[in-house]
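seq as requested:
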Amino acid sequence: MRTLTAPMSRPERPIPETPAPAADGEAVRSEVMAIRRVSSAALLGDTDRLIIEHQGRDYVLRRTANGKLILTA
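struct tokens:
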């Protein structure tokens, strides 16, 4: 006989607040907005492969013929 259990619920994460406008009208940067954004073209340049070293291991970021990106160890 199988016993069914309810799935474990994930703890709720706080929703980031919308940054308040500064005195000059520009939004104040929040931690969420501070994530770096880099284009794949800036990373790969004219090549289709890039080796990324992370914690002593090499990973290959590759652009496929369909323009998708694949990261492999």
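The beta strands are 49-54, 57-63, 69-72.
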